[in-house]
Amino acid sequence: MRFAGDGTPSFIPGQPQQKVTGSYRMDQWDEIRGAVLYFLIVIATCITFGAILVVIHEFIHSTTAYLLGHMHSPLAIVWGNPITLDGWDEGVSYSTMFNAGQGTDAAIIAVMPLLFHAVIVIVGIYLLLSAALVRKKWLFHLVFWLVIVNFMELVAYMPVRAFSLHGDIGNCNHGLGLNPWLLFLVGTPLILLGLYYLYGRVLPRMNVVVAGESRLVRYVILVFSIFYLFVFRGSIHNVLTFAPNMEWLTLLFGYVAFVVILYACQPGSRWITAAEKQFTKEMSGGAP
User: Which pTM was predicted?
Assistant: First the structure.
């Protein structure tokens, strides 16, 4: 988005941009090239954040285990693929702790990275909804995709793997002797609340600040974010191995969420356009 000399936005979302002297209008090919370029930037951003955060995730496991006396070194993690995020493991022997009656320690070690991701998501959404980043396009971009990458980790475990007998949620449930339904019934509404703020409140701001006049960039933001959140790791990776009982049903959450959010938040929809106009008015000094 561009701003006039007085700092006000030079376009209003939802209104066509006319080609007149002194004003800027993307032609079709410029918009396509811009969308392709931004798509590549998004992929690079998510690969970078994903690789960094998966290492941090495993180190939080191993460091917590080390501090509780269950590992000889926090560096003893198993390294995997930084692009697909497969093959990583914290190197913690949960079975040894379970056999020794140290289930609480196992649960603490299992849940700590998820608390880290939750804090990043909450702080990130808070920043995106504040006035701090509204005129800083690329910083807004970085914080938005940092939130997406961390939120993906939360969605991959809750509700997708809420009934898993292994992994972080499974180890937490087993260590504390919890019924999987407890975390499912507590965690799933919190995930839905986060999605409301992310797509109901943050997305229109992302469209204005980062996409500007480009409808195609809006589609890049929407489609890639929900693909990364719900399909890339949360459903595709898990649906390949059929699980009994409730787990196979929770795997469908990602696909349902993808379709619902894609339909509800598509660029040009009435409520998205209204939210963009309201945000643009606030940016230009109008009444909120």
Answer: 0.84
